[in-house]
Every structure is written in structure tokens, then in C-alpha cells.
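$ fold --in a.seq
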Amino acid sequence: MNKALLAGGVAAMATMTGCSTSSSDTASSSSSGAPSGMPSGGPGGGGGGGMGPGASQVKYADVVGVTTDGEVVEDLYSIHSTDVSTDALVKAAQAFLDGLSAKERTSCVFDIDADEWTAWSNVDGYDRKGVRMGDLTEKQRNLGYALLGTALSADGLTQTRGIMKLNAFLGDSNGGNQKTLTEGHYFFTFMGTPSTTKPWGFQYEGHHVAINYFVLGDQVVMTPTFMGSEPTTGTYKGEKITLFKPETTVGLTMIRSLTAAQLKKAVSSQSNGNEDMKAGAGQDNLKLAYEGVPGSDLTAAQRKRLLDLVRVYVGYINDGHAEVKMSEVEEHLDDTYFFWMGETEDDSAFYYRVHSPVVLIEYDAQAPLFYKGSSSTGPSQEHIHTIVRTPNGGDYGVDLLKLHLENDH
């Protein structure tokens, strides 16, 4: 048994980018013709993160996870001690919940196996449940940020806050009349009760952020995690913010390290399009075959570069659990595939994917729509989506929860 895992006209543009044009706090599904709980606008087809056409929510009980062919690889995850304490995490989560009113707390707490786990989207106008950061007091918000600061690494918190700030920057650049394009339109929900022994977790999501965080004892799963931004650079309230430079740089470093023979395996004959992400919202049971060059074909130096790439994404969780996850990834490095679409210049827009039995990472440069351009300009590094998943039943801690219920109850 392997170590446990730790762990996405104006109306037309809104549909493609995952931005709605509603000025209300949440989108009206009836006005858009979408089913209740579905986004007002989302990417078409390939699961680009909006749970739009071609994607739909999978009920929690039906989650199988990402597989290559519909068959789950068995015995990848086990219940065990990681020796990385979650005591501070439990205390931070309980402090946040204790700071809420009874009504607020009731609105954001669900059962551990609730369908709310899979009801996430990166679309700004998605009809979310839970408590909204912009509706809380400053003291309550600070307790929420303290929870994120404990769950995430320093880089992870900086990335998350940067995405929120650039969401407000985007809103300001478009007139500032949309509550969904603000720093406050992000929601907390909790599944189960914070505990050092019993399973629980939380979800933090809004436009361009969806963090799913499952905890069992001292084991942590932080997938699916969607992070993105449009734009990726801007100055908000005097702060210069630049996002996704590390993700961009490590991808270019990896692709440029490959030989001609390796490039033939790694690079698709198809150039990247506007939306190439496969494993976004609504794709919890995605079947995705391995593509690209496997780790077994790489030199020692190239394998290190591939691990460096993975570490950027895994490194957004707290440092101790990041090391647990990296050890797991390394155990499957021979079966870890690197796949690329697009050009390889410093300013190129491209797509890449890292895929193994225990990790799936996608980076997707998309067309800027509401900031400095339109879909006709083509993909750009000013609009990037990323996703991290744990294949074979690892997302949301599904496999760990099943093992817990089978063995402890």
C-alpha cells in the first residue's frame, strides 16, 4: 500500500471565459436557462472549469475519480500516519466556525459525504452555498484567512489572495458594478466537523479558485484544486501582483530539456486551442489516457526537472504535507507522463499536462476576453487556468473515506 495522498458579443465571451455578466451576488439559473445550481456561463465542451455544456456535477456517492480507462488502479492509498500534525489546522477551522453566527454556521456546514464536495466551479456567477467572505465582518474574514494560512503554504496563500485581488482588479477594469468580480465573492463550506481523528474537510471557492481540502487524522488531500486568473498581472490597491510565473517557467524549462526523440512523444501534432483543459469542474469521473513522454524515458536531470514542475503545484499545500505528496509522486515517476501543446517561447501561450497514477496537473493558457483583448486574439499568458487532481479515487479523499468507514465503523 502506498502513502496517502495529500494532496480548475459579451454574453458569448462570458460563456467562453467562465465570467458571468450578472451584477448580483449569485447567478440566476432561471434567467440563463440553466438547471438550478448551474453556472450562468461556462466553457463549452472539454471541462475547462465552468461546469458548462458537456460537463455536469457527479454526485459524491458516484465519484470514481479520474482514470485512464474507467478502471480504478487499486491499493494506491492507505490510512496511516504521516507524522505531520493537523492540530493547528483543526484549531483554525474550529476558530473560524466558532466566529460565525448560528445562521451562518448552519448555512455552511454539511455532512462529510455531501454532494456539496463536487458542486464547485470556477465561474464567477456560479450559484454557491456557504458563507461569503464579503458578507463577513473583518474579524471573521481574518479567521478565514488564518485557516487558509494554516492549510496552505506561504506561497499557496499568496497565490490564492493574489487571484482574489486580480478578480477585483478585473471587476474594476470593467466598471466595478459586478459583485461577483470582487475580492469578497469567495465562499467557505465545511464537510463534517473539524477533528484530529474523524474525517472532515472544507471547500474554498469563487472565480478562478476552488480548493477542496479533506482531512483524516494527519493525512490531507487537497484536490481537486483549480487556480486561474485573468489577467495574470495587475496593480490592485497599490500592490503589483504577478501570478503563474513559476508554473509557466517550470513548464518551459521541462519542454526545453527534451531531446528531439523525446519531443516527438511529448508534443502533440495539434497546436493548443483556446480551451484545452480536460479535468475541470464537472469532470470528476473523467477518462483520460496517458499521453506524452514517460518518466522512464527521461534522464536523471530531466526527472529532477519534472519533479520540480510538480513541486510548484504541490507546494501550495502546507510544507509538511507537500513533502508527503512529493514522496508519493516520486514513487510513480516512471509512470508519470509529460504532454505539451503549443510553442515554447518565453511569451508563448501553451498547454501542458503531467499525469501519473497519483497526480494529474494541467496548465492551460486561454484567450483574454475581458481584459486587453477578446477571444479572437487567441490564447495568452494573461489568462491562465490550472488544475491539480488525484486520479483513481483520490480526489475529495473519497478512497480514504471509504477505507475509514469500512475499517473503523
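$ fold --in b.seq
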Amino acid sequence: MGIIMLVMVLVLGAGVWLFQRPLWEGNAPEWGAMWLIGFAGLMTLYTFKLSHDEYRATQLRKLRGSPKPCSSGSVDINLLELGQDRTEG
């Protein structure tokens, strides 16, 4: 999510540049760039929220000692049984 957020920030910067460029030449601003600025601004905020939530989930996972989620598809069946005594010995 952080990478997508970085791309959206770059798109937002490009939209602002496209909006401002005609002003430097003494012409009217490029109003069509406002769509790009609005879209990129909203997506930047949304991806920031998602990356923040991902960071908080990682910290919580470390605090609880939970494993990192993966897509391997292998599940320890014993972890699914509730109330099982985990003491070895």
C-alpha cells in the first residue's frame, strides 16, 4: 500500500503541475486537470489510511505473537481446535 500511495502522490503532483503550467505562461489554468487532482488526492488519502491500518495490524501481530499471513495454503489443523492444551512435556 505504501508503494501505491507513493505513486498516487506523484500523480497528484503531476496534476498540480498540469494545472499550474499555463499560469506561468500567462494563460488561463487548465481546468481539466482538476479531475486528476481530485482523483489522485482522494486515492492518496485512501491508500494512506490502508497503509496505516496495515502498519497497525503488523504491530498488533508482533505484540500477540501471531504468525504473518501468507498465501501458501498450509494450515496447522491443531491450531483450529479450541481449548487444546499447548504445553509439551
